[in-house]
Amino acid sequence: NVTSGVMTLNGTSNSHFGSLLNYGTVTANAPIAVSGDVLNAQSGVITLNKNALSSFNSLVNQGTITTYAPLTVNNSYVQDAGSLTVNTALSSARVRSLAAVPVEAAFKTGSFSGGGGKIILNGAVWQINQMADGVYAGTITGSGSISKNGNATLEFTGKNNYSGGTTITAGTLIASTQSLGTGAIIDNATLVIAQDVDGVLSNAISGEGVFIKSGTGTVALQGDGSAFSGTTNILGGGLVVNGQLDNLNITVDSGAVISGSGTVGEVEVKAGGTLLSGSSDGNGGMTVSDDLHVHQGATVSLKGTGFSTGSSVAYEGRSYQMLASDRITVNGVAQLDGGTLNLTIQEGVRLKNLEGYNLLSAVSGVEGKFDNFVTSLKTDYMFLSPTIVYVANNVDLLMRRNETSFAAAGDTQNAQAVGRALDPLPETNSIIYAMESLNKQEAAKGLKSLNGELHASARTALLQDSYFVRDAAISRMVGAECKQGGDTAMQTAKLNGQRTDGKCVTESASLWMLGYGSFGANAQANNAYGMSHSSSGFVMGADTPVLGWHVGGLVGYGHTSFNSKEVSSNGHSNNISLGAYAVRNWNNWALRVGGSYTWNMLSMTRNVNFVGLSDRLNSRYNGGTAQAFGDLGYQFNLNPVFVEPFADIAYVNLHTNGFAERGGAAALVGRKTDTGVTYSTFGARIASTFLVRGIPLVPNATAGYRHAFGLATPRLHESFASGSNDFEVSGVSVARDVAVAKIGLRAKLSDLLDVGVTYIGQYGRRSEDSGVTGNIKITF
């Protein structure tokens, strides 16, 4: 039938053709049978009206076919860029669609495949009798439905939105979450959801067939699956179940994951498979309505929170408070053939002793155990051990105190000492409650903060500061002598001509005063952290000749501050001193002796601050520093310079009363204690005298080596005010060996008045101190 031809078939008799090539118009009102091939070209129009029950051997449609009567294609039908509208029924042994096919009635095909095109199911049911495997990459739309028959496999790879539903009665249908439209799925054969990207399957599912998830993507089942009683195999990727699928029996293969907070039937997790129960916030769980079987090599993964459930569990005589977590509820038997239990704790959550999680419960009992437990709890806690226990029908994780001593976290002897004192304390003690849940780094900070070592280190600062009272007395005694570089009164008379009787002005009574200021530091040793300190004050005295001696007395006030940043502690002491001294000369020899007593009034502040505990502590207590000293020198007059080698010795004893800190749980009680140190110093003094504009100036210097004998490291016994054994802490050490250097200048303003200034440096291996003194003397 050529392009301009018109063929109309009327009547009731059948028309038979060997083949039909149509470029024009064919209208059939009676049955047509074509034993050969039918080609409806691009310009062709074929209309099969109501009574035209037609049968073709094969059909290639490039034009327009509209049928109102059943059409059977015995071999193959190819839809090639044409248009097919079926208003009744179309059946074909094999269909290949390359273009749009609107279908409004029954659409029966044999094996189906296609590389493109579009099928519109306008309320029709497309029955596919798939006898050979095929893939359709086109799209399917409309309100119709699909019935997959035949034992072969058909795969939909396009994005379809037909709404009538999908029924699988035989063979296998492979699809993605975007290929099955929006209608319900009846699976009585095999449905495979194969995809490598995540997706959501919102269709309701029913039937007794097989549901398979393959590919690396994760699929969330959000439709109603309560009527599906078949089996589910997860071969790859993940399947998320958050709904009520009580009859969904699931097998999880190696590399696959079942997750969610829904209800499923029987679950079997094979080696390499994972059961991830719960929600992202760690407060949910999966319910298994039948049995759970975890194979060797499988993994069960859960999350824990820090929120209390209000319930408790008794284990070995102790009560454990349970926290909210993901969990698995099994209404049958939980068979554990090994496998790994993996517990992840919510970020920022810190578990305490006697807390735990209920991870699995089984109504009919738990058989077997996990053979591996993986959790960050094993490394995050030093003194608590996460323990998996199997009690009755439950699998619980309990946080239990282990055998590790608190002292193991200490990085100094003091920290270790306070750690050992904490070990016997009960769990109800707030310090223990805080310490138990720490890791090693946090616990080390806690012990450092708790030990109160500054109380001991402050003793070192006070022992060292005794030098300023002692040095003020000795310096005054050196200045009271009628020797060159000493008082200079005789020299002054000779130089300025005011006096020529040769007498030393210092044979009269004198009043003097010296002010000082210094700062220094003692470095950290293996017992205590470093301490910085500063001192300031004044010493004043009066002296006069008595029976060949020059005898005097002194009084002084000083303020000593000390600070240890590492232990967040600081304090100060106000010091009031009284003393006496005397000096006597035999030719070039000079003997100087003296002693003093200082009342120390200490005030201390400690800040205890570590994870789980914060406290501010204060204390005030008194002490006393007693010292006695002697200095022996021999002067060489090397005009205009004098040199005096000397040796001196001093014994200093510091006593402090006991103290009780005010504050919270970390408050300490300290015992009264004494610390005694002997100092010996060997060195030389050098001085000279010269005039500047008629004023005698005396430059002077001292260099010496000082050694400390006795207990150079102060020790103190303390205990916690809330109750504990005593523990001993040590302070920073008094430097054993120190180089002492003094450089000064005195000016004789008149026979009765002189002033001076001196730099003092003290340098040891682990300590240093630098200071300045200024003095004035009035002679009567």
Short summary of the structure?
The chain is mainly β and 780 residues long.
Structural features:
single chain, 780 residues, mainly beta, Lipocalin, 8% helix, 57% strand
Account of the protein in words:
This is Autotransporter domain-containing protein. It comes from Acetobacter orientalis. One of its GO terms (cellular component) is outer membrane. Residues 504-780 form the Autotransporter domain. Keywords: Signal. The chain has six helices and 65 strands. The chain starts with 5 loop residues before the first strand and ends with a strand. The chain is mainly beta and 780 residues long. The radius of gyration is 51 Å and the shape is elongated. The strands form seven sheets. It has a 15-stranded mixed beta sheet that branches. Strands 2, 3, 5, 7, 9, 11, 13, 15, 18, 20, 22, 25 and 28 form a 13-stranded parallel beta sheet that branches. Mean pLDDT is 88; it is low at 484-506. It has three domains: 1-183, no CATH class; 406-448, no CATH class; 455-779, Lipocalin (Beta Barrel). Helix 2 crosses helix 4 (440-450). Strand 50 (549-564) and strand 51 form a beta hairpin.
